[in-house]
Structure formats: structure tokens, C-alpha cells
Amino acid sequence: MRYVISYVSTANPNTSNSDLIKLMDFIKYNNNVIGIMGLLIYSDGNFFQILEGEKEIVKMMFERIKKDSRHHNIIKMLDKEIMQSAFSEYHSSFIVISDQHDQNKLHRFLYKEKTNNPEHFKSISYLTQKFMKLT
Ligand SMILES: Cc1cc2nc3c(=O)[nH]c(=O)nc-3n(C[C@H](O)[C@H](O)[C@H](O)COP(=O)(O)O)c2cc1C
Fold first, then answer.
1. 2-95 is classed in which CATH architecture?
2. For 20, 73, 83, 96, which has the most beta carbons within 10 A of its beta carbon?
3. What sign for the dihedral angle of Cα 133, 104, 111, 23?
4. How far is the CA of 86 from the centre of ligand 1 (A)?
5. Nearest alpha carbon to residue 61 among 79, 45, 44, 46
6. pLDDT in tens, 7-49
């Protein structure tokens, strides 16, 4: 069963920039190893994350993330099963975006989401663009 969880949160102000960069590198690496797709955006002291993959793995990861002291004010937005689309590309990977210049990455991600996750595409597209203050 494929599943999506998405949330926003506030970064802990004690977390330094270099710690954030290390964290994001680790997340990208680890999610690609364990088969979690989606994205993590860091902007103006806030995180926006989409976790997509096998239900058990996604739920287990969200439980772990919730306990992480590097952020707080976690507000969940999506927590749903994903209908299997005939055109899904499961080899797409997890991406990390930490500045406005990474907009191309976001556009490529949204383009893939349209086929991978057509039911939630509209809300994901809206939320990510608002979060990055693109609209
Ligand atoms: C905002 C935020 C998002 C995170 N997202 C992930 C993630 O998607 N995948 C991941 O492996 N760890 C993520 N982490 C790190 C985990 O909370 C945890 O530190 C990491 O998985 C290592 O867990 P362990 O120390 O129990 O092995 C995130 C942490 C924060 C603060």
C-alpha cells in the first residue's frame, strides 16, 4: 500500500546552518536507500516535507521525525493512501530544496507528481508553491 504524509514545522533556532546542511544530506541519502520519495524544503526557518512510499515505512519515519528535537510546531497536512496510478514512476527519488534558486528542482518534482500522485497533485502543488512564496 502506497502512502503520503506531509507536514510543516519550525526549525529549532539552536540548529546551526552547517548542522542543517548535514541533516539534509543525511535525509536525502537515507530516504533514497530505504525507498522514501518526496521532498524536504527548508525556507525562512521552516520545513515542509512530503514523504511518499510504503505505508509502514512512511508512518515509521514520520513517528521518528516527530521526536526530533531539531524542529517543533509540527502540523500535519496530508496523511492518506495513494491510489496506484498506471503511469507511476517509482524510481523517482527524494529531493531537498534549501533556497529559492532550486525552483527548477521543485518544478521537476511537481511534473512527476502529476503522474505519480494525480489525486493529491493539486494540493501538493499549491502547498509547495505557497511555502516557497512563489505565488
Ligand atoms: C525536519 C526533519 C525532517 C527529517 N526527515 C527525515 C527523513 O525524511 N528521513 C530520515 O531518515 N530522517 C529524517 N530526519 C531525521 C530523523 O529525525 C532522525 O534523526 C534520523 O532518521 C536518524 O534516526 P536514528 O538516530 O534513530 O537512527 C528528519 C529530521 C528533521 C528535523
1. 2-Layer Sandwich (3.30)
2. 96
3. negative
4. 31
5. 79
6. 999 999 998 989 999 999 999 999 999 999 999 999 989 999 9
